[in-house]
Design a protein that fits this description.
Layout lengths: L2 H7 L3 H29 L4 H27 L2 H14 L25 H5 L11 E6 L5 H10 L5 E8 L5 H9 L3 E3 L2 H6 L4 H6 L4 E4 L8 H6 L4 E5 L13 H10 L4 E8 L9 E8 L6 H31 L4
This protein binds 5-O-phosphono-beta-D-ribofuranosylamine.
């Protein structure tokens, strides 16, 4: 019974019963307390009475339901539910990422919520396919692997290649793969609209940085809370930060005499290489290594893991999104 609701809310039969019970008790309490309050106000005129009563109910209902949900053990569900209604009524700002107790993704501490997914660029436009934009400035070997990995997926689609370098190798890949390109201009990225509107229009849900050398402006990061990830060719927090890209990273690793290096996939924030770490993988650094040989080993690791981790992060976001549909 109520299978549709159970699927929609991703709850079992017992939880659904408790949720409906909470609704019923919360509703009754609201009606009772509302009428008591109205007696205290002592309003005579009928139409004013009705308006005030409705206002009282609207305010009391969420409070009553939340209190009852503590007793029925359904507080997390109702908190999300009420926030969602608040956002739909535009009473709650939807661009701030919020925090919940959801399991972290891979080995990340980053907390993502259905709110943050919901508040993203495709709100009110629920689609089964998640559109990814790859931001890349270089050769694009990672972009190529990501495209191949999701080529036959009906859930994730590489819908755009964004690039700030008009002669980058990744543009040839985009042309060959028939993927639309967006050339990113510095002025517009940093002092203009940050391309937010254009990415929204193109229905981009998730951004993957794969060798994109510019820091993203906060405007763009805020528009995609928890939905921008990057790959770095070293084990962060070491060998990251401004100027640490390409062979600079590998030279630094070799100069420090490290015995191992690796890759870090992390969320993107407003600083270089500082967002929460999602995944890391290690490889050896051999005594005879040059920056080039180390780069090859690192690239192989990137190609092996990045597409899969992207899939896991996106899938996790989607499953949270469908918690309250
Ligand atoms: C990769 O090594 C990645 O770690 C870094 O930029 C490089 C991009 O390489 N962020 P490619 O263009 O994908 O070959």
């Amino acid at each position: 019974m109520f299978k549709g609701l159970r699927n929609k809310w991703k709850v079992n039969a017992i939880q659904l019963t408790l949720i409906l019970l909470t609704f019923a008790i919360g509703g009754s309490l609201t009606g009772y307390a509302g009428r008591k309050l109205m007696n205290i106000f002592g309003i005579e005129q009928k139409w004013i009475w009705i308006i005030v009563y409705l206002l009282v109910i609207v305010i009391l209902w969420p409070i009553a339901v939340l209190i009852v949900s503590i007793l029925t053990g359904q507080f997390p569900f109702f908190l999300q539910y009420i926030r969602k209604i608040g956002r739909r009524m535009r009473l709650i700002r939807s661009t701030e990422p919020e925090v919940d107790s959801r399991e972290s993704i891979v080995n990340s501490d980053k907390k993502l919520t259905s709110e943050s997914w919901d508040s993203g660029p495709t709100t009110n436009d629920y689609r089964l396919t998640t559109n990814i934009a790859i931001f890349a400035s270089g050769a694009g070997s990672n972009a190529q692997k990501i495209i191949e990995y999701f080529r036959n997926s009906n859930k994730i689609k590489v819908a755009l290649i964004a690039c700030n370098n008009p002669v980058a190798g990744v543009l040839a890949i985009a042309a060959r793969e028939n993927i639309p390109v967006l050339i990113i201009e510095k002025e517009r990225l940093f002092r203009g609209d940050g391309y937010v509107e254009e990415l929204k229009e193109k229905k981009i849900d998730f951004i993957v940085l794969a060798g994109f050398l510019w820091k993203l402006p906060s405007r763009l990061i805020k528009a995609y809370p928890g939905r921008i990830i990057n790959i770095h060719p070293a084990l962060l927090p070491n060998y990251g930060g401004k100027g640490m890209y390409g062979n600079n990273v590998h030279h630094a690793v070799l100069a420090a005499g490290e015995k191992e290096s690796g890759i870090t996939i992390h969320y993107v924030d407003e600083y270089y290489d500082s967002g929460d770490i999602i995944f890391q993988a290690k490889c050896v650094v051999l005594p005879a290594d040059t920056a080039e040989t180390l780069a090859q080993r690192i690239h192989a690791l990137e190609h092996e893991h990045y597409p899969r981790v992207i899939g896991e992060v996106v899938t996790k976001l989607k499953s949270v999104d469908s918690f309250i549909g």
